[in-house]
Amino acid sequence: MGRQPCCDKLGVKKGPWTAEEDKKLINFILTNGQCCWRAVPKLAGLRRCGKSCRLRWTNYLRPDLKRGLLSETEEQLVIDLHARLGNRWSKIAARLPGRTDNEIKNHWNTHIKKKLIKMGIDPVTHEPLNKEAKTEESSSHAHHSADNHTTENDGIANSSEDNSSSPTENCSTTDDPNLLDAICNDESLLNSLWMDEPPLVDVSWTSISAGESNCNLTSLPSWEEDCAWLLDYQDFGTNDFGFDYLDDIELNTLEMGDKSVA
DNA sequence: AATGTCTCCAACCGCGCTTAG
DNA sequence: CCTAAGCGCGGTTGGAGACAT
């Protein structure tokens, strides 16, 4: 007597989303907020499974998403966090407002990985590749599973701190070096990452969209008026849409820690 | 201009944990 | 307490566009 299936495979569309589907999903979420994803397709009139809707929303349609390439600072932060956390993309993404785990994961695999290899750094262990080759035999395989945090962390935490003077830094133009340092050196913050507490979640948007706050969304054009703005927003930052207040909320959340995640 | 290859990223898949019933 | 769906996560894939020949 579990729950109902999330979708009845038959008649469920897959593949790229159309503008029309995006429109329906956005309109629905803006109107009703994020409730149970299972119900979303039906209520929004979409022939998609709830999971697909959730993914589309979180990875692409959320208004607070930044689009475009990661800045040097963001990239450096990703490298640093990856050295400590491994492939825990969602945890890493939680430290980069407006970025999704999928986006960071993609960027890692397509850009950062190659960059590190080019620099002679093993993207998995964050150790120099030469050294890696030597120690490969003596040490057990480079594992970045959750079980190995301590071992990996011990070795890497130091090396990543050295990053400030490492070759990596050469390409870092310090958009906001203080932010990077603050995050990387904040032990309590890192500890919270190790724990399973969600230290930072995008409550700002969820609460807004849930109708908890009417905020600025009320001033946004509706689909009935003009549906083009949301399809266009993908090319802009959040500021372009009056969502810049989200950053403040997010920073507060970061400091206070988030406990009201559903 | 045509064709082949590479790169990138949106979306899917499957697994593990959580939680409703 | 048990079962099975919901949910979130990380790994992987496929197709579109960019680039090379």
* Percent in helix: 40-55%
Q: Kindly, what is the distance between the CA atoms of the first and last residues, rounded to a whole number of angstroms?
A: 23 Å
Total number of helices: 13
Mean pLDDT: 61
Uncertain residue ranges = 1-8, 136-177, 195-262
Rg from C-alpha positions? Answer: 21 Å
- List the secondary-structure elements in sequence, H or E: HHHHHHHHHHHHH
Main beta sheet, described?
Answer: none
Beta-strand percentage range: under 5%
Helix-strand makeup class: mainly alpha
| Total domains | 2
Total number of β-strand segments? 0
- Overall 3D shape: elongated
Explain what the structure shows.
It is found in: Nucleus. Keywords: DNA-binding, Nucleus, Repeat, Transcription, Transcription regulation. Residues 130-152 have a biased composition (Basic and acidic residues). Residues 9-61, 62-116 form the HTH myb-type domain. GO terms for molecular function: transcription cis-regulatory region binding. By secondary structure, this protein is mostly helical. The protein folds into 2 domains: 1-64 and 202-248, no CATH class; 72-194, no CATH class. The protein has 13 helices and no strands. The longest helix is centred in the middle third of the chain and has 18 residues, at 101-118. The protein is elongated. The relative contact order is 0.13. Mean pLDDT is 61; it is low at 1-8, 136-177 and 195-262. The protein binds a DNA duplex (21 and 21 nucleotides) through helix 3 and helix 6.
